[in-house]
Amino acid sequence: MYSLPLYVALTLTLLGGQRSSATVSKPEKPNFLMIVVDDLRVELSPYLQNTTLIKTPNVAAFAKESVLFTRAYTQQAVCSPSRNSFLSGRRPDTTQTWNFIDSFRKTPPDGHKWIALPQMFKENGYFSAGCGKVYHPGHPKNNDLPYSWSTPYWYAPPAQVGICGNYKPWCTLADEKCVDRHLADYTIANLTTFVKEKKQFFYATGFHRPHVDWGVPQKFSDMYPQPQHIALPTHKRAPTDMPPMAFWSDIWMESHGIFNGTKIRPEHPIPDYLMGEMRRAYYARVEYLRK
Fold first, then answer.
1. What is the mean pLDDT of residues 2-11?
2. What confidence category does residue 273 fall into, taking pLDDT thresholds of 50, 70 and 90?
3. Residue 26 confidence class, pLDDT cut points 50, 70, 90
4. From residue 10, how far is each of 29, 34, 205 by CA, in Å?
5. Looking at per-residue confidence, does 42 or 190 come out higher?
6. Which residues contact 264 (CB under 8 A, 6 or more apart)?
7. Pairing with 118, which of 69, 167, 229, 268 sits 20 to 30 Å away (CA)?
8. Distant-in-sequence, close-in-space partners of 190: CB < 8 Å, separation ≥ 6
9. What is the C-alpha to C-alpha distance for residues 166 and 215, in angstroms, rounded to an integer?
10. Which is it for strands 214-216 and 170-172: parallel, antiparallel or unpaired?
C-alpha cells in the first residue's frame, strides 16, 4: 500500500514515461500520482527519526530520494478549508472557506472560474482521475466534477466498510473492512490500466485514515505498547496566544461519551489514560496504512 508523509504538503511521484535508448530531442511528459493522507502527523521517521514509535521505513527511503518539506503547515485546523486551499492554490482568507458549508467554487466574484490542481492537468492534455478523500465530500459538490476530473469520481467503498460502529473512535476490523485497503487496490488497478493503455495521466488518491475512527486488524495494535506505556505529549494544553480558529474540539466524541463527560477545551486537555489509548490506536492505524 502506498504511504507518503503528507497532509497539506503534496508529494508528486513520477510514473511510467519510459524512454527509448535512442536520443530524444524533446522530453516526454511524466505521469503524476498524488497521494493525500488525512490527519497524518509528521510523527514519522523522516521527521522525528528515532524519537517516534511509528516506524515507516518505506516513507524514510522515499524521503531520501525526494524533496522533504519540513515547514509545510496545515492551512486551517479542519479538513474542508485546508483542502479547498491547497487544491485551489489560495489561502483560506482568499477562498473564504472556513467551514464545512462553503467551497472555493462559491467564492465571489469568480471562484467558479478558478483552475484547481487536477483541473490544470486536465486542461493540459492529461487524463485526470482519482479516488478517495482528495476534496472534502461535497466541498466542492460532486468532488468538483466536471472541472477537476475526466471521468466519474469514486469516493469510497460502501458505507459499511471502515466504520467501527457504536461511535467508537477505535476498534478491531478485518483487513477487507478497512477503507484504505480498497482505495489502494482501486488505485493500483487504475494505474496498471492507464500504463497499459499508454494514457497520459494525473491520478489523485485520498486515503481516509488516520482520521478517526481508527479501525485496524488486531496484529497492528499488537505492534505497540499498552496505553499506559505510550509516551504522552510534552505540551498538553493549547498555547495561551493561540487564536480560537486554530483549536478544534471533537464534539462528536464528546457527545457520545468517549471522553466520559470531559469537555475537551484549550484549558481542559484530554485525560492521560485516554490520551495513551488514543495514541496507541492512532499509531496502529498509521502502521496499517504504510503496509
1. 35
2. confident
3. low
4. 19, 7, 11
5. 190
6. 249, 250, 253, 254, 270
7. 69
8. 129, 131, 203
9. 13
10. parallel
